[in-house]
Amino acid sequence: MARRPVAVFAIAPWAFHDVFPADLITRLRQSVDVDPAVTFTSFDGAEAARALATAEILLTGWDCPRIDAEVLKAAPGLRALVHAAGTVKAIVDPVVFERGVVVSSAAEANAVPVAEYTIAMLVLGAKRVFGRAGHYAAGADRSAWQPGAGTGLHHCTVGVIGASRVGRHVLRRLRDFEVDILLSDPHVSPEEASRLEVELVDVDELCRRSDLVTVHAPALAETHHLLDERRLALLPDQAVVINTARGSLIDTEALTRVCATGRVSAVLDVTDPEPLPLEHPLFRMPNVFVTPHLAGAQGRELRRLGEFAVGELERFLGGRPLRGRVEAAQLDYLA
């Protein structure tokens, strides 16, 4: 029997069993030698050194240490890194690509629950659910929470900033609703926009025309405070801003000021800073809903990441194209 490659886990213990349940471990062991009793969140120490010395594949996830030149020196036979989570930006040093190690991420699988969260918040935001629920709980007159003019997603204009993995999932799901879709992304051509069935516009025009704006761009120098005070002022009255991408894409203080007027509402799964200080005024505004960075895979959804990673490992060993391959040139533009 041919020798099977050796794989090593580098993932937080709290996530391990949900990402890699027993049946996926059984499936893994058909392709690689791997010890599910050993997972690393640090590569310091003799045990990690022994594991890295024979490792050909790293199966990584949350709390994986950064893979840099020192780690590669300790893992001379490393051929692939398969990340059973979202972005690899924080854990993969460019030297990994220089060494020829193949990198893959389950970001595509993690994008699914983020898109589902986004659609849910678009529906609820369009109904002004959060503010109206607060009025209702406070004993307000029925007219304060009943559906009124200008509520509901039907025939809204939804502005999507960024045709990222999540952004594209959102665009596909929005086709099930009778809405007009605007997209702002400098890397999308008019021809691709036509295929995506969206109207391509710049960010300023998107802000002027959108009833709801959802942000799905990466955190880059050029996207820092993409929605600043000037652009937030362009939003129509009663607009809703949803951010599931990165907190730095929105100027928090400018958003706080505009939401305090009641003119704009917001749903924020990410913030800048993150977490927000407990006394931050956004927590106390009835038209703002803040969640603790939970739009990505949670609980039962984590299995999807493990399934994706195991499938990638099988494709890699079979010499087939990888669905989640990450190239060196992409590293600077990942979320």
UniProtKB/TrEMBL annotation:
Ranges where the D-isomer specific 2-hydroxyacid dehydrogenase NAD-binding domain occurs: 140-295
Coiled-coil segments on the chain, per record: none
Domain of life: Bacteria
TM helices/strands, residue ranges: none
Keyword line: NAD, Oxidoreductase
Residues covered by the D-isomer specific 2-hydroxyacid dehydrogenase catalytic domain: 41-326
InterPro entries reported in the protein's UniProt record: D-2-hydroxyacid_DH (IPR050857), D-isomer_2_OHA_DH_cat_dom (IPR006139), D-isomer_DH_NAD-bd (IPR006140)
Family the UniProt entry places it in: Belongs to the D-isomer specific 2-hydroxyacid dehydrogenase family.
Protein name: Hydroxyacid dehydrogenase
